[in-house]
User: What shape does this take?
Amino acid sequence: MRILKVNILFISAIRYMKRLTIRFAGRLLLIQAFLFFSITVFSQDTLLNKHGLWVIRSVDVYKKTIATDPSKKMVSINSKIPNAILDLKYAGTDNFMHERLYPVIHTTYLRQAALNALDSVQSELRAKHLCIKIWDAYRPYSVTEKMWEPVKDDRYAADPKFGSGHNRGIAVDLTIVNLTTGKELDMGTGFDNFSDTAHHDFKFLSENILQNRTMLRTVMEKYGFKALETEWWHYYLPDTKKYELLDLGFDKL
Ligand SMILES: [Zn+2]
Assistant: This one.
């Protein structure tokens, strides 16, 4: 009798273990399927490029980043500063590459935070009958890769190993126009002059030129931009890493 009882108990225990195993295996399968799905979707969003950088190429991923931080939104310069003068050099062939690197565009983009700061710059300049003239702002990462090839000097072009403030939507290349004469202020060199004459510490220039450069730098820094020492026309927001590198077409923004 006692042996029978032990046997029944033993059989019940085995049945219970079997049920547990089936239930567990089912759950394991579900977990595996979930992980596979998530990793596939996740890796498409976070795939690092050959330099180990995360470059956003998907509009959906970009939208997720701005949903959590609206200051990252890419906003058209025309919509916020309609009286800014735009001469977008890479949308034409008048640039150091001698080729059109952008599609035909009539505006360009900056992150909301950078654009707000630039709007303050423009307001201050307009009060003096001056105006900003923009040569470049947002630049897709793939264009930076293309520009690096002929230059390969990180004083004058962004190394794709790190990306550019332009790719992050927080850098702008600009000068100042006198609204009375309609002419650009004399800054000593034109845009994309890859020589030491374009450096901020190059002082063998007329007093007028040095004053013009100082005026641009002073007003840009007043509203939070930082100067690049090797290019008098390039300014960027300092909290660089907060803004992801983007490789989205202008029509996607
Ligand atoms: Zn620049």
Summary: The pocket of zinc ion is lined by residues 136, 166, 171, 173, 234 (CB under 6 Å). Confidence is low (pLDDT under 50) at residues 33-44. The helical segments are 2-46, 59-68, 77-80, 112-126, 141-151, 207-222.
